[in-house]
Amino acid sequence: MLHLLVADGNDRAGRETHLSVCDKTSAETYAGILHALAPDAVCHLVAPADADAALPRALSDCDALVLTGSTLHVEDGGPAVTRQCDLVRAALEAGVPVFGSCWGVQVAATIAGGRAARNPRGPEYGLARAITRTQAGADHPLLAGRPPAWDAPAIHDDAVVEPPPGSTVLAGNDRLDVQAIEIRLGDGVFWGTQYHPELDLDEVAAMLRLSAEGVVQAGLCPDEAALHAYADALRDLHGDPEGRADLAWRLGVAAEVLAPERRRREIANFLDRLVRPRRRP
User: Fold this and answer.
1) Tens of pLDDT along 37-48?
2) SS3 184
3) Residues 22 and 127 both lie in one domain
4) Same-domain check for residues 52 and 105
5) 68, 82, 126, 185: least buried by Cβ within 10 Å?
6) Which residues form the Glutamine amidotransferase domain (predicted)?
7) Distance from C-alpha of 225 to C-alpha of 78, rounded to nearest angstrom
8) How many other C-beta atoms are found inside a 10 Å radius of the C-beta of residue 90?
């Protein structure tokens, strides 16, 4: 049996907002996916941004830590950020494998000596397009099974703008050099993606609605009505991915995004290629 600690990157306000549009928290989304990919897994949820958070299981008794996305900004600092940095640092120094998407990558890069900040090339809203491996990522197990180029759900303003010393950047695209990365700290290994392999298209749609003002300000939609129409199309495509080929064509959404087993490939690779081989007796 695997014991996986799932840390929600949001503070209380962020969790409540996410819950209001997605009917589940980011940690609950991840826990459901982890259990689907590893039926023998038990997920222990924690919200480390909170001052009163207590680990439901000791790190030494966990096979892995997974850190979700967040509405927080690493550069802002503060206790809610520091507590999460401390948790990831403690896990890695204890040799616990860590996976993170979006916020998780930014936290891991920061504690290892890199820098996360607003992406100078602009945000990615909806999908990160044409992600490709670096030379170092060509045969890396995190990306096993990915085609030469792929798209993935993505919603972020911030990103890793300076990778930490000694890290291995595995993939990027024209918007961002660090779309996937490996970071080693202490006895631990971090694998992560700036994009969101955990998100279904209906969740992407819901999060876009929350970011409507930012999407319009970035020039990606002419107005909020256009953004909501785009979100409606994503939601409808999620509800009928096989029957709405018209929407997939119009939105430019291919199988790497539509098929859950392909969209979640990095999470499955983390479990199968990193966690299970290092599983504690």
Assistant:
1) 999 999 999 999
2) strand
3) yes
4) yes
5) 82
6) 47-203
7) 35
8) 16
Q: What is the pTM of this model?
A: 0.96
Same domain, 243 and 105: no
* Residue 281 confidence (pLDDT): 58
Query: 177 CB contacts (<8 Å, ≥6 apart)?
Result: 163, 169
- Tell me what the mean pLDDT of segment 203-210 comes to: 95
Contact assessment for residue 179 and residue 172, using Cβ atoms and an 8 Å cutoff: yes
Query: Residue 51: left if φ>0, alpha if ψ -120 to 50, beta else—which one?
Result: alpha
Tell whether 152 and 235 lie within a shared domain. no
Same domain? 34 vs 80: yes
Range of the domain at 208: 201-256
Q: What are phi and psi of 54, to 5 degrees?
A: -130, 140
Contact 278, 92 (CB under 8 A): no
* Residue 25 belongs to domain with CATH number: 3.40.50.880
Domain count, the chain: 2
* pLDDT 10s digits, 213-249: 999 999 999 999 999 999 999 999 999 999 999 999 9
| Polymer length in residues for the chain | 281
Do 205 and 194 belong together in one domain?
Answer: no
> 210 with 193, same domain?
no
Residues 184 and 231 in one domain: no
Strands 168-172 and 180-185, how do they pair? antiparallel
